[in-house]
Queue: 2 jobs
Job 1
Amino acid sequence: MQIRFSLVTALSALSLVGCSSLGISNGSLDYKKTATIEPLQYPEGSMVRPATPLYPAPIVDPLATANAPKYENERGNRFALPRPTTFTQAQTTTQDDLNEGSIGRPQQITDGNQNPLLKIDGNSATIWQYTLATLSSLNHSIVAQSKNATDVTIKIDQKSYVLRLSSVGSSNSLAVFNTDNTFADKQVAAELLAQIYQNWPA
């Protein structure tokens, strides 16, 4: 009885791991040996309804088949996906880098109301320093500058506008407002932000 139980256990274990470990074919590559079947031929003079293949087989170029990747095991008798290849993770900007003062390049975007914005990722304090330096290089007349907030009032064509930096996490956006906190004229804002974008020192 004990010998019979041991034999059954050994056969069960072999059936579970034998196919994968011994490389026994399981029919997963039989599709490569399929042959083309001619359409069904009816006796001459038969009245039949026209038959349209439900799943017509595509015509494959033999050259494409010869150069197709081979998803099979080493013995070539079982389907097997290739092992994943190792890769070097690309360097990405981390939160620590942003906190240390690293900033990205400005991006010209618009909000839902098509108001021009300048989106810049990075440390807001560093971005604001770059903004003031860029305004200085553009020779715009600075009328007033907030000490605690990141906004500055400048004069363009004898009219005052407020350039303000808004931050959400590490994402920052520059926008141009009128002195009553409404968005400035889209053309004026677009021209000013384009000048900042083109002369950004980073």
Job 2
Amino acid sequence: MPLVPSRPSKDTPAAAPKQRSRKGKKAWRKNIDLNDIETGLENSRADERLGGGKLHERANEALFQIDTGGDDKGMVVDAVITFNDTS
């Protein structure tokens, strides 16, 4: 008499599903860390928003200006000191 494979009973656990392959493009995209790349891109985007381009490529004269004229009014502290001296 030939041996017939037995059917699984209710007490035996079912076989676990096979694990999918990790060689495909989905797995590559899923298992990589993009934090450092995203941080670098966000920093370069912020530079472009602030100055219209990358700050390290611009000349110092385009980024800064020297104020040689000064204010016409004078400082508030000077007005307070003269007011206190006269009273």
